[in-house]
Structure formats: C-alpha cells, structure tokens
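Quick one:
INPUT:
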C-alpha cells in the first residue's frame, strides 16, 4: 500500500514550494517543465514527454522496488491532464476523445495503486463552481464528466493551499487547509492533524504521516540509479 496525497491550489499559492525540504529520497516528475521555485536539496528531477512515458516510468516502481526512493511527486496532475487531452484529440474524434481520456486517467491511478511503501503527491489546480444556493465551492479540476468531482476519492489526504496575509501586513503566510471548511473539500484521516491550517511543508507532513501510522524511522540507503 502507499499513501496518496493531493495538493490543490491556485497558481502561486505555495504548492510546489511545499516540497522545498525534500531530498534525494524523492523523485519529482516535472510535467510542467518549469524551474523549481526553491534551491533543490537533492530531489531527483525527471521530465516526461508523453502520457505513456510517464506511466511507464511510474510502472517501474510497482511493488516495493527502489526502496531508497520513499517519495514520488507529480507536479502537476493538471498539466498531465492537459497532456492526455491533447494526445487524445490528436488520435481520436467525437466521443472517443473523452473515452480515451478517461481510460488514461484511470490507468494513472491504477499504476499509482500498484506502487507500495511510498508517499505519493500530486499537485493540481482547483475548479471553481457555484452550488444551487449560489455558494462558491472548489474541487480538483479534471476534464470530462466521468471523474468530475470524484477524483478526490483516490487520495487518502487532500490539502488545499489557503495562503493568508500576515497580521502585520508584511508578506503572506503560506499554509495548507487539512480538513473541509465547507468551501474547500480538504480531507485527512480523523485525528491526524489537530489544526485546520498547517505550514506548507511536505517534509513536516510526512513526519506526521510516519507518526500517525506508527512508523518512527525510514532507512534511506545510499543513492542508487533510479529509472526516473
């Protein structure tokens, strides 16, 4: 089993920056092909040029392979989703576009399920909607109808970036919402976090995961060649 987490938020709200304290135990698939917004402390960066290429790379982690890698990041699911749609439109027409799209989304989560003993993080952008009463609500953005409003079911934890201007008016406090506030559908297991907001630091989040599930230490062997 693994622990799958979504980190959802608007651009420039601290999603990618939250990985700043991770190191060589981490592989990050940078689907957006952008420079990191922090000084890298050893994260193994990998780009991908196609949907199947990413699925094949992730598939090499099936089971408990590469134990020296404990954390996998896909930054971002939104860009991966756009990549799927572009490829499907190039190969299919009409309803077949969305049939092929839904199949590839399903394949991604099936591959992720087959990876054991890893912390897996997907970043993504929210979709802004209004309910029947006119209230603004958010959910993970995804194309097509089959997975709309349902993709969160694949994740154990869903954090929403919810930055707040500091009380002194100087700067912004970048933070994650840990459970739903009626607007953002954040979720974490009962009792995992005592506060509604936490610092946007995935290293500290992983430490909480280890404590909550009874894992006190993680052995990271010497760096090895990973099929990233």
């Amino acid at each position: 089993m693994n622990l799958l987490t979504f980190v959802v938020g608007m651009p420039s709200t601290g999603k990618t920056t939250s990985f700043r304290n991770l190191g060589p135990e981490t592989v990050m698939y940078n689907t957006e092909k952008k420079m990191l917004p922090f000084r890298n402390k050893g994260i193994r960066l990998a780009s991908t040029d196609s949907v199947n290429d990413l699925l094949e790379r992730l598939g090499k982690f099936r089971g408990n392979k590469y134990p020296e890698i404990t954390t996998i990041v896909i930054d971002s699911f939104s860009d991966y989703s756009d990549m799927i749609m572009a490829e499907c439109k190039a190969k299919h027409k009409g309803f077949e576009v969305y049939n092929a799209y839904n199949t590839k989304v399903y394949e991604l989560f099936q591959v992720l399920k087959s990876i054991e003993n890893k912390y897996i993080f997907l970043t993504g952008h929210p979709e802004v909607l209004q309910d029947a009463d006119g209230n603004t609500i958010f959910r993970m953005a995804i194309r097509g109808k089959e997975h709309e409003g349902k993709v969160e079911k694949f994740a154990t934890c869903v954090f929403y970036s919810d930055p707040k201007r500091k009380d002194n008016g100087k700067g912004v406090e970048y933070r994650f919402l840990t459970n739903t506030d009626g607007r953002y559908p954040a979720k974490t297991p009962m009792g995992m976090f005592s506060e509604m907001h936490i610092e946007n630091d995935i290293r500290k989040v992983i430490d909480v995961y280890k404590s909550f599930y009874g894992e006190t230490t993680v052995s990271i062997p010497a760096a090895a060649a990973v099929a990233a």
